Amino acid sequence: MPEGPSIVILRELVEELHLEEALVIDVIGNTAIDKDRMLNQRVIAFKSWGKHFLICFKDFALRIHFLMFGSYRINERKDSMIRLGLIFKNAELNFYTCSLKFIEGDLNVVYDWSADVMSDEWDAKAAMKKLKQKGQSLVCDVLLDQTIFSGVGNIIKNEVLYRIGVHPLNTVDDLPPAKLKALIKEARQYSFDFLEWKKAFVLKKHWLINTRKVCPLGHPVEKQYLGKTNRRTFFCNRCQKLFATIH
């Protein structure tokens, strides 16, 4: 599943095409949504919120979520079936294996931009307040809560917890204040590191724990499916502290 930084890369690539105010001259694909609604409409802007890519028109927006295996092509096509393709005079955007939904009205009403870890409007204090309301939730779950850390996905979750030395089976209430602050700070910092490394095609080289067999200190890495989210979690029992008994 593409995480927030990957969606930012998509947004930046599309913005380089200068399609704002461009007219959609054709809409293709096997989607069941009303494709004709976008035909002959002008794009107002492209936005990203967490894992959502948003194509904004005058009175509505198209939300694209890439699920687990979604992908896109710009000015080219894959051999597989296109879910949605938007054709402009001098460009085309093609999306595959994704979820599509129209968002009506003002996006500022629908989206809390301060929850997006990569947004200029990110609000760490608001994140702390939300975290404290999730006291009995496991940290491996709250990091994936898009209402708190929009854009954080499983890779970021694993790497952040290792960076700050926190075991994934701690609850929010288990963590001392300094670790809670570190969790919030690192969720944002690692997302920007992810973005930099992804652009340079060296992301996997920088993984400390995700998919590894041993941690950087040579300890064996555990792999389990943890929490309510039941997502694949890599962690080191020696480097990552469990502040309370296992839940």
TrEMBL record:
Alphabetical keyword list: DNA damage, DNA repair, DNA-binding, Endonuclease, Glycosidase, Hydrolase, Lyase, Multifunctional enzyme, Nuclease
Catalytic activity entry: Hydrolysis of DNA containing ring-opened 7-methylguanine residues, releasing 2,6-diamino-4-hydroxy-5-(N-methyl)formamidopyrimidine
Molecular functions per Gene Ontology: damaged DNA binding; DNA-(apurinic or apyrimidinic site) endonuclease activity; lyase activity; oxidized purine nucleobase lesion DNA N-glycosylase activity; zinc ion binding
Chain ranges of the Formamidopyrimidine-DNA glycosylase catalytic domain: 2-103
Top-rank taxon: Bacteria
Biological process (GO), any one: base-excision repair
InterPro entries: FPG_cat (IPR012319), FPG_N (IPR035937), H2TH_FPG (IPR015886), Ribosomal_uS13-like_H2TH (IPR010979)
Family: Belongs to the FPG family.
Protein name per Swiss-Prot or TrEMBL: Endonuclease
Species assigned in the record: Pedobacter lusitanus
Lineage: Bacteria, Pseudomonadati, Bacteroidota, Sphingobacteriia, Sphingobacteriales
